[in-house]
Design goal:
The protein is of the alpha/beta class. It has helices spanning about 45-50, 80-95, 150-165, 180-185, 200-205, 205-220, 245-255, 285-290, 300-310, and strands at about 15, 20, 25, 55-60, 60-65, 100-105, 125, 145, 170-175, 225-230, 260-265, 270-275, 275-280, 295, 315-320. The protein has 9 helices and 15 strands. It is globular, with a radius of gyration of 19 Å.
């Protein structure tokens, strides 16, 4: 009898303290169904349906403070009510034997005054406004550049949100450092025009996100912390003139935290050829440099996922649209 060849995506992986039974990850997917910014009971069905024993799920982006909102009905985790609402959802995932990480983030200038406390301007690295979205007609409000002495409070918002996630039962946190949100607004040179210690050089532009990582690692331990990065993505007028250098620098910073769990990175923009996404596989430099588990994301199907795991290009592959059917 001929032994069946193992399917790479279905092989086990040791991620820090956690044993995964396979390498398919639920990517964070924005849902906008947390009415009043409080997670709803129906979310336990949504997440538990996508959980299997030994799998890794990453929650939809969850907001760290009242200044962090930008879309309607986003789940949040800065109040005790929100923490309590997450608990049965996390329990439902754990009953299926899966791991559940909470993605925590702040929208920054991807917002309008309507979402902000007392109708204030959204906060950002800059006061440059995002160009109106021609397709949706969305017009984002002009942001207010954070003053240097305000930044420690935002760092602390992330720290408290991370602690709240653990109180809610999550196994760890995924720091949202991607897709044009606040942390990336600081990192990328198109959206950071500051002249203080948080702007200018690459080190300065990355200072804020490194301070956030440092605060969360001190609060939870590196073995409960991962991060999502998208150095190549140009979403929300947020792009960098040298994404390879930016990504490499950030991976080097992550390696300063022994045992930091994972780096979750998004592929460069894909082309569609003969109806199929052509993934550029632009993450190898970062995968080779990072010491922990490396998660690739961005347009993968089963065939491509199996290939990159087999080739050692990624340890895990995050999927979004295939989970939403």
């Amino acid at each position: 009898m001929v032994a069946r060849e193992a399917i790479p995506l279905l092989t086990p992986h040791r991620m820090g303290r956690f044993d995964l039974s396979h390498r398919v990850v639920l990517a964070p997917l924005t849902r906008c169904r947390s009415y009043g910014n409080v997670p709803q009971p129906h979310a336990d069905v949504y997440y538990s349906q996508r959980a299997t024993r030994g799998s890794l799920l990453i929650s939809e982006g969850t907001i760290v403070s009242d200044t962090g909102l930008g879309f309607p009905e986003l789940p949040s985790i800065w109040t005790q009510q929100q923490v309590e609402a997450w608990k049965p959802i996390v329990d439902a995932v754990h009953r299926k034997g899966a791991l559940f990480f909470c993605q925590i983030g702040h929208m920054g200038r991807v917002s309008t005054n309507d979402f902000q406390p007392d109708g204030q301007a959204p906060i950002s690295s800059t006061d440059k406004q995002i160009a109106p979205d021609a397709e949706s007609g969305m017009v984002y409000s002009k942001p207010r550049q954070l003053q240097m002495d305000e930044i420690p409070a935002i760092v602390d918002d992330f720290r408290r949100a991370a602690r709240n996630a653990i109180e809610a039962g999550f196994d760890g946190v995924d720091i949202h450092g991607a897709h044009g949100l606040l942390l990336e607004q600081f990192m990328k040179d198109s959206s950071n025009d500051r002249t203080d210690k948080y702007g200018g050089s690459l080190e300065n532009r990355c200072r804020f996100v490194v301070e956030v990582i440092d605060a969360i690692v001190r609060e939870l331990g590196a073995d409960r912390v991962g991060i999502r990065l998208s150095p190549f993505v140009d979403y929300m007028d947020c792009y960098d003139s040298n994404p390879q250098v930016l990504g490499k620098y950030m991976v080097q910073q992550l390696n300063n935290y022994e045992g930091l769990l994972y780096c979750h990175m998004v592929e460069p923009r894909m082309a569609i050829v003969d109806g199929r996404r052509q993934i550029p596989h632009g993450l190898l430099l970062f995968r080779k440099a990072f010491n922990g588990t490396f998660i690739a994301a961005g347009g993968y199907d089963r065939e491509e996922g199996n290939r990159v795991v087999s080739d050692g290009y990624a340890d895990l592959v995050a999927y979004g649209s295939f989970f939403s059917g």
